[in-house]
Amino acid sequence: MFDRFGEFDSAAEINETAVNLRREKDTESIRILAKENGIDVDIADAFIDGDIIFLCDDMAAAIGKIDIESEELKPVEIMKDWVEYLKSRCFEDPDMAKAIRSKKKSLKGAIGALLTWSFKNQIPVDKDILKAAGVTAGRCTLGIPGMGRAKQIMSEYYTGKQVG
């Protein structure tokens, strides 16, 4: 995932590395740095050409990290919705973007926080629902957070701050 340069803790760290590589005229390494961090090659080329002064901002660094983590995780269904929510938060809240970029936090950790909540908040499924679903188990529980609760859990996971 972050094979050559390792995981960066912030956009500032990515930019510092990119500037040093540009000073060394190591354009191939700048492209690799961008790819490892989910930053478009066209942005890397504009940076190499001097058209832009930095490779990424906090929002792009966070979204890039989510994209790279998603490639490995391969989320489906509701997990895709959670990923898209996190990306949208990067546009809305600079502090959230910085928190998402942190090395101490990950998409797997955020989904783990959701799963922890799910296991702690399981409720029995009504027998008539089990019958309608063709489930023959004597007992079945379900603990899926609603989107509002999921947003709260993910925000609290990344920022460490109580929400709501």
Distance between the termini: 34 Å
Q: Major sheet, described briefly? A: 2 strands, antiparallel
User: Secondary-structure element order, as H and E?
Assistant: HHHHHHHEHEH
Task: Kindly estimate the percentage of residues that lie in beta strands according to DSSP.
Answer: under 5%
Strand order of the largest sheet: 1-2
Number of helices: 9
Strand segment tally: 2
Contiguous runs where pLDDT drops below 50 for at least 5 residues: none
Multimeric status of the protein? single chain
Classification by helices and strands? mainly alpha
Shape: elongated
The overall pLDDT average reads 95
Radius of gyration: 20 Å
Into which percent range does the helicity of residues fall? 55-70%
Draw up the topology in text:
Layout: H1 11-23, H2 27-36, H3 41-48, H4 58-73, H5 78-92, H6 94-101, H7 107-120, E1 123-124, H8 127-133, E2 141-142, H9 147-159
Helix pairs in contact: 1-2, 2-3, 4-5, 4-6, 5-6, 7-9
Describe the protein:
This protein is mainly alpha-helical and 164 residues long. Helices cover 63% and strands 2% of the residues. It is built from 9 helices and 2 strands, in the order H-H-H-H-H-H-H-E-H-E-H. It has helices at 11-23, 27-36, 41-48, 58-73, 78-92, 94-101, 107-120, 127-133, 147-159, and strands at residues 123-124, 141-142. It has a two-stranded antiparallel ribbon. Helix 2 (27-36) runs antiparallel to helix 3, helix 4 (58-73) crosses helix 6 and helix 5 packs across helix 6. The longest helix is centred in the middle third of the chain and has 16 residues, at 58-73. It is elongated, with a radius of gyration of 20 Å. 28% of the residues are buried. The mean pLDDT is 95.
